[in-house]
Design brief:
Layout: E1 2-6, E2 16-22, E3 29-30, E4 35-40, E5 45-49, E6 54-59, E7 66-68, E8 72-78, H1 89-92, H2 111-120, H3 138-148, H4 165-168, H5 178-193, E9 196-204, H6 206-223, H7 230-243, E10 249-252, E11 255-258, E12 264-266, E13 268-270, E14 273-275, E15 278-279, H8 287-302, E16 316-320, E17 339-343, E18 347-353, E19 356-370, H9 376-391, H10 394-398
Parallel strand pairs: 12-16, 16-17
Antiparallel strand pairs: 1-8, 2-4, 2-7, 3-6, 4-5, 6-8, 9-19, 10-11, 12-15, 13-14, 17-19, 18-19
Helix pairs in contact: 2-3, 7-8, 7-9
Length: 400
């Protein structure tokens, strides 16, 4: 009996994905839950397991193809020991390039593209499809809309500067992944939409480091997780957000939405790009609970196992560029959030304390905020409260 393998539900607001890798080929024996292929969306990577045991029949969607939710990926001959290898979809494709191939009447445009065309009042004839067999994608619609905007109202994209032929032969051109395209688009949208301003301060890490060194062994023994700096910063930010709630708010049209909770986004670098898993209700968690959540989500992020739900709903973000050696930076907001704290490298520096020059482990802090709803006073107050809490961690215990 032939069993169909279809694209699973990809999460809220995600309607399509790209086939990144096929792990099995037609004729391969398959056990239940063997990974058949990997789908890449604009947010996460999703693995598709086999629902039955048997042999892989036909691969309908080849690597690189864009597929919608519930689209047919492949068929499996259930229980069969062997099966004739079907011709992969990739080999069945014509040799025509997207620039010269004509779109078949049977080619279905991407659902997101249909919606975008309807909203913009465009028809498929007005849009050049870049997908398989001329399929119109959402980005094609966006390109068509942008092309229709007069040059006076939209800045033109600067053409790539010409290069020598010898240099061109030594270049490698690689298509951006959907995740990288989304990162680029969201960051640029943030700069275009929010009135981003950054304020800086520095914190003496002496007390936090001493407290951590004193209790790290007992902490690990009792809770089974290392005591790092992130739990101190998360706690300090939650404390400061309580005093300056506009940093934990967002703009919705002409309204300001104040959050009575803190869902802390923790930026994490992965081989695929930057992702921001969210620690929900971080303001109600203990140090141990925060450290466990960060460790677990960080590992899942590096393995590409985060779900969409785990990266949605954040109200504030912490980005730790210090792990890579960054001394100072101005982080970009993670929309629709109104604030992001940048941590940096801890470095011994001479500072003046009580009239004496001493060497202390110092860290620069940066708060980027949306000046549309956060005034300078609120931003500076927030950063000062974080600094005070870290330089005297007992304030966190006393709620001061």
């Amino acid at each position: 009996m032939s069993v169909e393998v279809r694209v699973p539900a990809l999460g809220e607001s995600v309607s399509e994905a790209t086939i990144a890798t096929w792990f099995k080929q037609p004729g391969d024996a398959i056990a239940v839950d063997d990974m058949l292929c990997e789908l890449e969306t604009d947010k996460v990577t999703v693995e598709v397991p086999s629902p039955v045991a048997g042999t892989l029949g036909e691969i309908v969607a080849a690597e690189g193809a864009t597929v919608a939710v519930d689209a047919l990926l492949a068929t499996i001959n259930e229980g069969a020991a062997t099966a004739p290898a079907a011709k992969p979809a990739a080999a069945a494709q014509t040799a025509a390039t997207p620039a010269t191939a004509s779109k078949s009447k049977d080619v279905e445009d991407a659902p997101a593209a249909k919606k975008a065309m309807a909203e913009a009042g465009l028809s498929a004839d007005n849009v050049t499809g870049s997908g398989r067999d001329g399929r119109v994608m959402k980005e094609d619609v966006q390109s068509a809309i942008a092309a229709a905007v007069p040059a006076a109202s939209a800045p033109a994209t600067a053409p790539r500067a010409p290069i020598a032929a010898d240099d061109a032969a030594r270049e490698e051109r690689v298509k951006m992944t959907r995740l990288r395209q989304t990162i680029a688009r969201r960051l640029k949208d943030s700069q275009n939409t929010a009135a981003i301003l950054t304020t800086f301060n520095e914190v003496d890490m002496t007390e936090v480091m001493a407290l951590r060194n004193q209790y790290k062994d007992q902490f690990l023994q009792k809770h089974g997780v290392k005591l790092g700096f992130m739990s101190f910063f998360t706690k300090a930010c939650c404390h400061a957000l309580n005093e300056v709630p506009e940093v934990n708010a967002e703009i919705d049209g002409t309204d300001i939405v104040y959050k009575k909770f803190v869902h802390m986004g923790v930026a994490a670098g992965t081989p695929s790009g930057l992702v921001v898993p969210v620690i929900r209700d971080a303001d109600a968690m203990s140090f141990a609970e925060i450290e466990k959540a960060i460790a677990e989500k960080g590992a899942r992020a590096r393995d590409g196992k985060l779900s969409m739900a785990e990266m949605q709903g954040g109200t504030f973000t912490i980005s730790n560029g210090g792990v890579y050696g960054s001394l100072m930076s101005a982080p970009i907001l993670n929309p629709p959030q109104s604030g992001i704290l940048g941590m940096h490298k801890i470095q011994d520096r001479p500072v003046a304390i009580n009239g004496q020059v001493v060497i202390r482990p110092m860290m620069y802090l940066a708060l980027s905020y949306d000046h549309r709803i956060v005034d300078g006073k609120g931003a500076v107050t927030f950063l000062v409260r974080v600094k005070e809490a870290l330089e005297d961690p007992r304030r966190l215990l006393m709620d001061l």
